[in-house]
Amino acid sequence: MITVDFTLLPVGPGDRVLDLGCGGGRHAFEIYRRGADIVAFDQNENDLADVAAMFAAMRAEGEAPAGAEADTVKGDALDMPFDDASFDRIVAAEIFEHLPHDTAAMAELYRVLRPGGIAAVTVPSWLPERVCWALSEDYHTVEGGHIRIYTRAELEAKLKATGFQIGPHHHAHALHSPYWWIKCAVGTGNDTHPLVAAYHRMLVWDILKAPRLTRITERVLNPVIGKSVVVYLRKPPGGPAAGTGAGDGV
């Protein structure tokens, strides 16, 4: 399930890309398929082991262009082990809502992105997230869970204060919002509830088949109940020269 629009964050051979807080690796795998050099970064060793295994499987099956590199790195988003201006592109998907010091992590993102580079930041959208918090305390009090709800204006203001130029935005995954509302209503751990199980089957079917009806429905609903909001950013040009890559997006 891809949240980032790669027409707005173009990646390809010659780009070095960071997937900050990669989790299960959904964006890292797509970036690798597109031929960019990808670093999947997270503090969860189990997730990183699974991502590394998938990178190896993709190499073995020829799913990534020859010459593309894929690595995993364990570390803290507040103190990343990378030099300044190390990356041409960065994806930071659903990470800042987990961090007490979100602005410190934004400053690190800014530091490791090269001047003129672009990034995509995604967080849960305000309305769907507010409904989840209202329906379930467990949803947001679990260890490692969400500690804040962003409005897009707040997110963009923090990123702008960090130094970024703010680009376009969009919402994604509207069909996933009702799934989480149902889970919050019946218990976030109750995956066997008939409504939860039925809706989950529909989502899996939609992801695998991408039928025209659900794709159109989601596009229509995304601006209203899209589960995630995605903001595209640029670090102002200047400093070290930009490398070759897939071209400009934002």
From TrEMBL:
Keywords (A to Z) from UniProt: Methyltransferase, Transferase
Domain Methyltransferase type: 18-120
Keyword presence, Lipoprotein: no
EC number: 2.1.1.-
One annotated GO biological process: methylation
GO MF annotations in UniProt: methyltransferase activity
Origin superkingdom: Bacteria
Matching PANTHER family: METHYLTRANSFERASE, RHODANESE DOMAIN-CONTAINING PROTEIN
Name recorded for this polypeptide: Class I SAM-dependent methyltransferase
